[in-house]
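[agent] plan:
  1. take the single chain provided in the ticket
  2. run structure prediction with default settings
  3. attach structure tokens to the ticket
  4. add a short note for the reviewer (M.T.)
[agent] executing step 1
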Amino acid sequence: MPMDLPPFQRLLDDNRDAVYRYVLYAAGPNEADDCFQETWLAALRAYGSLRNADNLRGWVLRIARNKAMDAARGRSRRPVPVEAVPEQATYDRNGLDPALWSAVGTLPPKQRGAVLLRFLADLDHAEIGLALDCSTDAARRNLHEGLNRLRKEWTP
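[agent] step 2 finished; step 3 output follows
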């Protein structure tokens, strides 16, 4: 059964101010225009397949919310510009201090694996447990014990 939808232009005209105000405050002034455009493009793509037209304003504002969240996620992954690049210290493998790398190398295998997977691969306890073929609790314990041992034996 076809739905009786208003023309898309009327939807845009009736709600553009509310959507722009929302993305301006949700995504910030630097990304508001992009979010606004992406919201209306997504709405246009989905408009013909709507099943319920009772609350079109809420529907388009939900799309705007999702686009603002996408912008925030993207912003957290982009580099931040700085005036001067800080001087880099010379480190050994993967940016680790050679003394720290040596200390990590002396840990028992499961503790060493847990520390490396946590800080080099950014895995959580469950993923570390899967990689080390042990339980999540055992992975948490190996990481804890390895870090305690490093704190006692290594001085920066």
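[agent] step 4 note for reviewer: The chain has a mean pLDDT of 86.
[agent] ticket updated
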